[in-house]
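Lab notebook, bench 4. The sequencing result for the construct came back, and we need a structural model before the next group meeting so we can plan mutations. Quick request posted to the team channel:

Model the 3D structure of this chain.
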Amino acid sequence: MKQPKISHLGNACKPAQVCSYVLACALLVPALAHGDSARTAQARGAAHSASAGGQPSTSSKRVHSSVGPNVSPNPISPNRSSSAQKHVSARASHQRAPIEYVQSVRGWHQPGPDLPKAPLDKHGRPMLVLYSVNSHDRAELTAATDEGGFSAQDLDRAAVVLRDTSSGNQHPVEPRTIDLLYRIQRHFNAPEIRVVSGYRTTTPYRANSYHGKGRAVDFIVPGSSDYKVAEFARQFGFVGVGVYPESGFVHLDSRPKSYFWRDSSAPGHHHREQAILGDVAYRADATARARGEQEARPPVIERDVDAVIETKKNASTITRVAEPTPAKK
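Done. Here's the predicted structure in token form:
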């Protein structure tokens, strides 16, 4: 009985030849998929041999036998592996801060032998000292209590130090954020708070940033580690606290609900934010609420500043009129 013809091969083939051809094709497909020229050539040779009526070559057998039970059947070629390793190394190096920046950050964390302690006000209370590492502006602000409380004039001076140094734009600062910076400075007995970034001009891509609302500060406490500073700041409640180990600073903002994170991105790179300590954030808000502190109200930006000022004047006038006249002695 004659062997049946297999039409897609074009010639009459024996079963053994068909098996050889199928085996060669099995070697050819993964080789083509991974762009491995050596394996592709070997598989093509095996396919040609099988279609000519022969057996697979010994070279194709060696390729097949090199794939063990614990080895990927489609290994990446040595050239591609080296290229991939270079790409990974390049990405890792891009996520690291430049050596010049690293040296600057180390200097910002050192109090310095010639830096005096924070000056004292007339009540013997340390003043809040804000120093911008970018503009080198400095402001010494007088607190009304041990917890903070600053006059409108001092808040305006703080806004100058916290301005957007790239554009020169200023924005009113959130008083509570300044109060928290004062409490941090006093807790660590620091000579000053070194500001890395304060207000940032809003753009469509960062419209919801707390920096653009005058509520956030990226800062350094000289003489103290960022992790210790962040650990203390998380106790306030109703705050956002972020640690940036590559950039070398702590982020602090005032918000309605606490949120803590760690960001390993280097300066000028996309954020690599990772939320942390959610349970600690929840307990911090509960504790703050129990001691009588209120949630930070969402900021409201008014377009007509003159109207707001006039409204406040009228409200204060009404309040004064409503006050009872003290009795004469």
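The two ends are 136 Å apart (CA to CA).
Will bring this to the meeting.
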